[in-house]
Amino acid sequence: MLRLFILLAAFFGFSGVTLGAFAAHGLKSRLSTEYLAVFQTGVHYQLIHALALLAVAALTLHLPGRLLTAAGSLFTLGILLFSGSLYLLTLTGVGKLGIITPFGGLAFLAGWACLGIAAWKAQG
């Protein structure tokens, strides 16, 4: 899982920076201030959880186990659902996509919980 989580962290970090720049320069004149802020929220959470994935990858070297795998998987799912739904919502204007966003937030929370439990169970 080490390699996969590093690859995912690199992908989400790269694409997060790209999407942030795209919003700041390419979407500024096309989206309302409110939708631009929603898009930037997606970018913000994507970048935070790209770093979390990188941390999970590093921790798998010292704390192997299913909890870290679950944490990394949940962070990935959270990025896709939370940030992805916000991007689609702002770019398409389909407000019903916002119903997906909380499921991404729950995935983030579950990922952080798995990470905490893995630390709690760690020896040393």
From TrEMBL:
InterPro entries tied to this protein: DUF423 (IPR006696)
Keyword rRNA-binding: no
Top-level taxon: Bacteria
Keywords on record: Membrane, Transmembrane, Transmembrane helix
UniProt key word Thylakoid: no
Subcellular location(s) of the protein: Membrane
Membrane-crossing segments per the record: 44-63, 70-91, 97-120
Membrane topology term: Multi-pass membrane protein
One Gene Ontology CC term in the entry: plasma membrane
Family membership noted in the UniProt record: Belongs to the UPF0382 family.
PANTHER family per the UniProt record, alphabetical: TRANSMEMBRANE PROTEIN 256
Name of this chain's protein: DUF423 domain-containing protein
